[in-house]
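Re-run requested by the PI after the first attempt was lost when the workstation crashed. Everything re-entered from the original request form. Ligand of interest: fe (ii) ion.
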Amino acid sequence: MLKLTNGHGSMFPLLLSCLCFLNSFGFVVCGFTSSFIRTQWPAKDIPLDNEVFAVPKGYNAPQQVHITQGDYDGKAVIISWITFEEPGSNKVLYSSVEHQYGHTAEAKVLNYTYFNYKSGYIHHCLVDGLEYNAKYYYKIGLGDITREFWFQTPPKVDPDSSYKFGIIGDLGQTFNSLSTLDHHMKSGGQAVLYVGDLSYADRYQNNDGTRWDSWGRFVERSVAFQAWIWSAGNHEIEYRPDLGEPTPFKAYLHRYATPYMASKSSSPMWYAIRRASAHIIVLSSYSPFVKYTPQWLWLRSELKRVDREETPWLIVIMHSPMYNSNEAHYMEGESMRAVFEKWFVRHRVDLVFAGHVHAYERSYRISNVNYNVTNGDRFPVPDKSAPVYITVGDGGNQEGLAGRFLSTQPEYSAFREASYGHSTLELKNRTHAFYQWNRNDDGVLVPTDSVVFLNQYW
Ligand SMILES: [Fe+2]
């Protein structure tokens, strides 16, 4: 069901291992462990006084501007920003004509405290009723201190609407993170599927919220102009009862809105959107999800709502990978795999993207749905109905690379490498998608793992 189109070029001499075997479908499968490692800059956050975190000039200027999809089908956006001195204007002026803002929408404003940190005024504004495939300009702020941005709405939901996603995970705010962000912005990705772990503010004393703010300013260069589709990671939990902060995901949920109610979900961390030819389902690895929980019930319903005649590409994103052969976070995704994998196979999910492990890995189409605690069946097997699992937690955060893969590459693992990078997925039509993992190679984007995926439904 998948075809290597680019091989791995000059990678071959560098391969540590190559496993080839004849699987039960009678075709040869090879797995590659690349010894190629690129970690150009130290795993340290960029100092706060660096220009990449610059606060916009002017009294109470809006900062940390970001947008995400605001409805089920891509005709709305949620525009968010933060002001610090006072709430300021809660209005978004917008138009399809530059500098002629004929429409207004109003934001909700909220804030929070976390131990001794006090957030700015966080604005979330739903702008809906937009046209498909159109460029919109928007302006926020007040008086002389305003800022202007633009975004492009996706094409209409249609099985042959082409669209290019970037996939980024575990980004953080180091110079490696900056390289990943820069490469994404050059790769032509029109929106981002973000697979969790954003700012790593929880690595600082008392989970210093100023590092949430610096991250917001850091990624604004991309996310003010295109939708990032958010999923939560473990660094967003911030459960610190010792600080008097027992509410998980407090900063994340205040700062990053999602359109969860549009997909009839009761949790902002579990939701679905349709964008161009894709139906994207967002799960949280750190929420209750076993049988009978609200999340389990919601996912069961959402999978039944998927219409592959309209959105042939069915994509799931989460943080903790279900299949991972790195020593880091080994088998942490097993509980979710045990609950949901059979649904993914039954509904012929095309791709499952995860982060968490700071390295890259892609699987073949395999499943372990026959796992049985009484009869001993316990091995993943090739399965034409199963998704491809891709781990792309290599955005570049301060924890560094996960450089130690298990010494024997599992048969299900197609390609793995411990370098920083990001992926792109270009849906061409209802049958074909071009996928690429792009390594940060001494600051240069190098397409390293390229695959043409055939749709699981068509
Ligand atoms: Fe993580």
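Saved to the shared folder this time. Helices lie at 175-186, 210-223, 250-255, 294-305, 334-346.
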